[in-house]
Amino acid sequence: MRANKSPGMLLVAYSLGLAIFIFATPGEHLSAEPPPAPAPSAIDDYIDDLLAMQPLSETRGGVRMDIEVVHDAYLYVMAQKYEEYANYGFDEDLIVSKMKSDHTKYKRYQNRLFFRINIAGEGSNHVIFDKKLASHLEVSQKSKKTNFTKRSYHLLNSNPKVRFSRWSIYGKSFLSTTKKNLFGFESLTADVTSYSLKATNKEPIYFRLKDIRVQSAGKDPKESINVKARQISSKKSWSALKSHGPTIVMTPGNWETPLPPTDFLNILKKVGYK
User: What are phi and psi of 57, to 5 degrees?
Assistant: First the structure.
């Protein structure tokens, strides 16, 4: 005589059979999530390590200058791009596609030094340029091939942009006013690259900030600066306001270059990096 099975017993039996089927089914027949994009776990540390090769800071005449150096501008820019794409959650194929375009754009920066430069007035001081950045920030490095030491660099970007506008300069009397094309700021950050400066050359690299004007935003209306109104007042003559800022000496012989993360290096090889 067959025993009658209750609905509860049937449900238990069905659930047990379903569980056995799932665990017995080969894994390849189950749908799987696509592999995640490469994690940028080490790339942010790598970027920090690049900028930590030789950070230096000097102060003179109420102006502070900070400089960070990277041995290869291409690696620095491409590391930033890789971190950006990975943080967006792009898969590897999309990252490679985008970085191929970046490689074409930035490969000319391979083996060029990269510098991040910050110039800032201390306290309420402001810095005034009457020429372009390259005329105020001079760089030099000796070479065995020539006695000519002055070197050049290429400005990638700056914040704020170096833009000149018409300023009013007031002397001892407000009646004695002159107009000049100037650029005044509290703080300026510039990213530059250089091919003429060489990391393989162990001679020091000198950055000299020269022929600047410095004025503080003081309470005395006859000795102050107003950047928004583009006005400078001083009891000194315009030429007497000229001064030299800090000098920073970098030593390539002391640089230790960090190794790129494996996942980042593999991507670079796929886009044509050698």
Answer: -145, 140
